[in-house]
Amino acid sequence: MDGILPLWKEKGMTSHDCVFKLRKILGMKRVGHTGTLDPNVEGVLPICLGQATKVAEYVTDSGKEYVATVSIGSATETEDSDGEVIKLDDSPKKIKREEILQALSKLTGEIIQIPPMYSAVKVNGKRLYEYARKGVEVERPERKVTIYEIELLDDRDLFEGEEILFTIRVNCGKGTYIRTLSVQIGEILGYPAHMAKLVRTSSGKFRQQDCLTLREVEELKDSGNLSTYVRPLEDALGEFVFEELDDELYDKIMNGQVLHSHPLLENHEQIVFTKNSKAVAVYRHHPEKKGLMKPEKMFPFNR
């Protein structure tokens, strides 16, 4: 079985747990996820099967959409509701809708984030959470991330209370930490904050309505109907430009030859070459030889 299985990861499971269970359900080893979702987060987790494991990185790097609940009034060591409170402001608060909208506007576009200590980002060969668990503080690298859109989903004009909760929808690029975004919203509003809840509603082309739960996958596998829900690996390449091959170029591409650059590479980083609308290779500019292109991924059995 080759393709993308859009899975709905339930709370309480790691992404690796999902892969482990699917290997048992499907009876196959080549199963991989497309980006870690924390155990306390539910949502869209595209799973790559068979040859499609080669395109996992493209799904991982694609845009994501989340629905998050922001809590204003306390900060935690993990920046979400699982961590211990490290700063508390339980004073009565009144925040106008316009103030929240202004904060969201300031955080839209290309912004700088510092990854949380409890994260999988590597520093000096170790994950940050490994340092955090030992109580060791290390300098964390700043990173640029892109927030395409933030929408306030709460329709109140005035937000009041010792703890203020509101929900946002975030459309963002790769590497964005919604936990950290929640903290940044609080900083602009002048209060400690953390992310109280998070749901990933889309990953690349795969949306919530496309997904199956693990139980549904097992039921469909037993009934022999699962294949109708597995999406072709081309769906993971949707952000790239496609080019159908003639027979002459097809033979060269299938042999993985280094070739003269295709005109489409003047405006695109990658080209997906297809035969009968099936992806057979991804090519990009040769990093060392000007005017030439080389294969980045090959799909010799995707026919």
Automatic annotation (TrEMBL):
Return the broad EC class. isomerase
List, alphabetically, the InterPro entries matched. Answer: PsdUridine_synth_cat_dom_sf, PsdUridine_synth_N, tRNA_psdUridine_synth_TruB, TruB_C
Q: What is its EC number?
A: 5.4.99.25
Q: Which Gene3D superfamilies match?
A: Pseudouridine synthase
Q: Which Pfam families match?
A: TruB_C_2 (PF16198), TruB_N (PF01509)
Q: Where is the Pseudouridine synthase II N-terminal domain?
A: 23-178
Q: What is the recorded function of this protein according to its Swiss-Prot or TrEMBL entry?
A: Responsible for synthesis of pseudouridine from uracil-55 in the psi GC loop of transfer RNAs.
For this protein, the record's HAMAP family field holds: TruB_bact (MF_01080)
Write out the similarity annotation: Belongs to the pseudouridine synthase TruB family. Type 1 subfamily.
Q: What is this protein called?
A: tRNA pseudouridine synthase B
Q: Which gene encodes it?
A: truB
